[in-house]
Amino acid sequence: MNATYPNLLKPLDLGFTELKNRVLMGSMHTGLEDRFWNIHKFARYFAERAEGGVGLMVTGGYSPNLAGQLAPLASTMNNRATALLHRHVTGAVHEAGGKICLQLLHAGRYGYQPLIVSASATKSPISPFKARALSSKGVERQIDDFVSAAKLARFAGYDGVEVMGSEGYFINQFLCERTNKRTDKWGGSYENRMRLPVEIVRRIREAVGPEFIIIYRLSMLDLVEGGQTWDQIVTLGKAIEQAGATIINTGIGWHEARVPTIVTSVPRGGFADVTAKFYGEVEIPLCTTNRINTPEKGEEILAAGKADMVSMARPLLADSEFVRKAEQNRADEINTCIACNQACLDHAFQAKRASCLVNPRACHETELVLTVAPVARRVAVVGAGPAGLAAATTAAKRGHKVTLFEADDQIGGQFNYAKRIPGKEEFYETLRYFKRQIELLGVDLQLNTRVDSNRLASDGFDDVIIATGVKPRTPAIEGIDHPKVLGYLDVLRHNKPVGKSVAVIGAGGIGFDVSEFLTHDFEQHPEGEQVSVQAWQAEWGVNPDYEGPGGLAERQPTASPRKIYLMQRKTGKVGAGLGKTSGWVHRNSLKHRDVEMLRGCRYDRIDDDGLHITITDKDGKAAETRVLDVDHVVLCAGQEPFRELYDQIVDSGARAHLIGGADVAEELDAKRAIRQGTEVAAKL
Length: 684
Ligand code: FAD
Ligand code: NAP
Ligand code: SF4
Prior knowledge:
Elements: E1 12-13, E2 18-19, E3 23-25, H1 39-51, E4 56-62, H2 80-85, H3 87-95, E5 100-104, E6 117-118, E7 132-133, H4 136-155, E8 160-165, H5 170-175, H6 190-193, H7 195-208, E9 213-221, H8 230-243, E10 247-252, H9 272-278, E11 286-288, H10 295-303, E12 309-312, H11 314-318, H12 322-327, H13 345-349, E13 378-382, H14 386-397, E14 401-405, H15 415-418, H16 427-441, E15 444-446, H17 453-459, E16 463-466, E17 470-472, E18 485-487, H18 488-492, E19 501-505, H19 509-518, H20 533-540, E20 563-567, H21 583-591, E21 596-598, E22 601-607, E23 610-616, E24 622-628, E25 632-635, E26 639-641, H22 644-652, E27 656-658, H23 670-682
Parallel strand pairs: 3-4, 3-12, 4-5, 5-8, 6-7, 8-9, 9-10, 10-11, 11-12, 13-14, 13-16, 14-15, 16-27, 18-25, 19-20, 19-25, 20-21
Antiparallel strand pairs: 1-2, 17-26, 22-23, 23-24
Helix pairs in contact: 1-3, 4-7, 7-8, 14-16, 14-23, 19-21
């Protein structure tokens, strides 16, 4: 028995098979599912995670038929040739000692394709297509297809299937009145509406026999108007157990819900109490989920008797060795998922292959291979921001002798300011991870050392990697030197006092983050601490007892201590460049704290009266002039590369590499910085 995580690492007996621990790697669509020629990449991706010790894994969603596809040509399990191909995946996983289930996901009206079907003819807000209502026979055909897909999964060598019954997909659409307007035996009363999932599970069990895992992902909290009530969910769960499910997994929130469920500002384990409330209603194992990203959190939840298993999806993208490190009491070496969604879910929604901001090898295991270097070189890395940290640790892992120079007294570069933003406390973890890697790999870290080209030349390095980052842009506005004007570093680095009314120039990621920072009352919610689950539920309108349709309640946002104007020159939606799956959360959060968002702004002048602006329409014509009577104007107007050192080194003839913001500041984010640092060092 593991002394630190006795509950998390305890085996789970399913009767006909045993899982080696309580960690389930939850389903994630990676994009590798969709094309048969990626099958070996897909197999390696899962094999690495099986080698890392995870108890049970679930693939991304596979539709049982064409109508249920997420998009044209998206992952489908509907013929034996496809199933045969999947033996590469199951074979690799089993060889590595793991177990894996195929997720059966029928998108229903969430499909981004014209053939979509649902309980009724409705259109979802996240697809341009309207679903066709199924006839009674049509419903039967969908069930048959689920059963065939499950049989094919067994033929492919999977240990089981997960039936996706949550997140607002097809099955969920039958369960809720908001999307099920039928009058036949599949609609009307709740008994009729829940017939579909119960029949799917019952008939799959009949077809596959007793020794095959069936996980049912139960929507325990719909978080939409017209969602299920708690009593209905319990009734369904019990019927699913009777129908033959092996495990019930928790599903939280429809995709169209206006309550965030997995972004970084959701407190850790924020939905574990939903599963806890369900605990005891069924006898089969219950798995909890959402924003569990450390072994400590998983252990705490299981030790408190809230669930039998924990599902972690993105944390296993971020670190394939998560479980192994926990087993070996090396949790401080885990590369923690910071729940940013930037390289995983945002990619999935853009039909790009998923990866991970903190681990660019994720889903690229066969391409970004870190071999031992044939010759150990002397490598200098200048700048310990995300790019430099990734380069230094990757180079050291490969056997190079690395010196990392940092001008500041701490590592992290701009991540040190990101982690101060309320709701982004997870960013501390990335710095903890790199700090530990630097110790383990013997990187010679020289803090408080602003190096110049002379120093680099005299130390005789074979390679010099310049990762000196960016400097904030100072826009040419009349009065830019006025004492009211502050840069974002004045606020986040130098802690300069900020008045009660503030104009933020620039509505990119940093403008939004600075506004979030300035609208928080740090006396109520101390810096560096995640908000409590109770406070977060009140902020976003989640019923603390999870009662009522959808488990929703009236929102009670906290008041901002300041009046904020957040501005951009573009006339399009404010914050349009933010992440696809997180931008709406940032906008919504600020809107509820009365931040005034202004677009089409021309900044005319800053003086004692405040900021003078002209608001233009989309053709650039002046529509209105305003004077914002503010105490301070905070500049968040983008950044420029800081790379003088590189130019000097190149001139001196040394072998130099330029990465991160120092390379290209435009559209730079940590995803690119870390990937570029890793890739450069992988080739040294
Ligand atoms: P930097 O982080 O700028 O690091 C450069 C380092 O080089 C610094 O530590 C500097 O001190 C050091 N240095 C410079 N010159 C020398 C020298 N001569 N000698 C020694 N050391 C030197 N990105 C995201 O992807 N997602 C986010 O959610 C996100 N949020 C953010 C929030 C805020 C408030 C801020 C400010 C940034 C955020 N970013 C985010 C951006 C992200 O932090 C940057 O893209 C990333 O830090 C760039 O990495 P870098 O290593 O290229 O540069
Ligand atoms: P950014 O996203 O490029 O935004 C810069 C903002 O400044 C824009 O709103 C731009 O809009 C404005 N601007 C540009 N030039 C200007 C000028 N000369 N005068 C006035 N305004 C000007 O850059 P950032 O906010 O500095 O963020 C840096 C990087 O960090 C970004 O790439 C971002 O992805 C990343 N980041 C991400 C997050 C996240 O949550 N994912 C959070 C923070 C940072 P207009 O041109 O319309 O005025
Ligand atoms: Fe987690 Fe961000 Fe990586 Fe996705 S990209 S797995 S959210 S750290």
